[in-house]
Amino acid sequence: MFTATLGIVFGLIYWKYVLFLFQLLFGKLLKYPAVKIEIFGWDGHKYNENEKRRWHKVKRKVMPIVSFAMRKGPDREKLLVFGPYAASLLIHLIPFIIIRTSYGSGAYNEGIGFFTTLTLFMSLLMLVVIILCAVSINKPINKELTRLYKEQIYSLWNGASFSQINVYQGLTSDKSASGHLRALHLNMCIYKALDRGDYQMLPQYLQALDGILLTPNGYNTAYNFTSCYYNILFYSSYIYINPQNAMKIYSLIKETIENDMQAYGSRILAYYQYFILKRPDLAAASLFRAEEALKKANMDIYTEAEMNLDRKYIKELRNRMAGDSLVQSSENPVMRYEQ
Asked: Could you give the angle at which helices 263-271 and 226-234 cross, rounded to 10 degrees?
């Protein structure tokens, strides 16, 4: 009995690591870039094949996480999602059947009981997860949101700007839909508004995002919601400056955005540093980092629309900083002389 209980307890931790390894394997085989890996309290990002993964210490849980980026090419996302679970199911179900057949009713005795219980537990757990994922993915509203989001992505990959894509804000109000899919569509609405310089609807979009992110247990800071927090931080730091809200959001994603070497995160951090922290020196360094990231962006992951949006707001902040510097210099003859 003890070994059987131990098998279940061990399985509660073990399954995450087995799934993690299969996710890495399937991602490699299907050529999906693992842009983020988190394990044992370390977080590693990599956006280009020819660069080394950049690791930093994080304070979050030690359970492993891997996140993949969408990329150009055949759509094999369902295989990427279900493959690791199916593989994990098979490698545990087959040994369970062998043990159960070989030992009969004695399969749960001391010694072999641990492996019998572990393989049974893992098989049942993977089966349940596969069923739950299939139900969620095939839910009509989720299927529709997924289809429309892929249409948007393909349009961007084919050269469309954010201003040119269709957005579907109305569908995001359906709370029975996946929160992640609703957030993806709200982000598209935000990018379109920013690209057009039309800020009128932004408060509505961001309020809807906040409703998705805020749970009874606090804010959900899972990695797939990172861009949501970035958009809220940008709005609170620049569009409608709200230091209290900006600082609150920044505190939730501090580790992520401070270690984000990509243009998107770096230029949003620059706005926060300039307008909220009043640190033009830090903002200048973040803008430089954003500009450098644009030069080596992986175009299998990024679109020209994303890069143009980053360029637009990098330039806008550069101009603002230069203008503020000129005003400050004209008001302070000593500073002008020292420069």
From this structure: 30
CA dihedral sign of residues 184, 185, 190, 196: positive
> By CB neighbour count within 10 A (0-12 exposed, 13-18 middle, 19+ buried), where does 229 fall?
buried
Note the pLDDT tens digit of each residue in 246-280. 999 999 999 899 999 899 999 999 999 999 999 99
Q: Does residue 54 contact residue 259 with C-beta atoms inside 8 Å?
A: yes
Question: At residue 255, what is the residue type?
Answer: E
- Cα three-residue angle 236-145-165, rounded to 5 degrees: 65
Q: pTM, whole model, 2 decimals? A: 0.87
Question: 248 with 219: CB under 8 angstroms?
Answer: no
Report the C-alpha gap between 278 and 248 in whole angstroms: 17
Q: Whole-angstrom Cα distance, residue 327 to residue 80?
A: 54
Adjacency order of strands within the sheet including 65-68: 54-57, 42-45, 34-39, 65-68
Gap between the Cα atoms of 205 and 188, Å rounded: 10
Give the helix/strand (H/E) hosting 227. helix 226-234
Cα 180 from chain centroid (whole Å)? 10
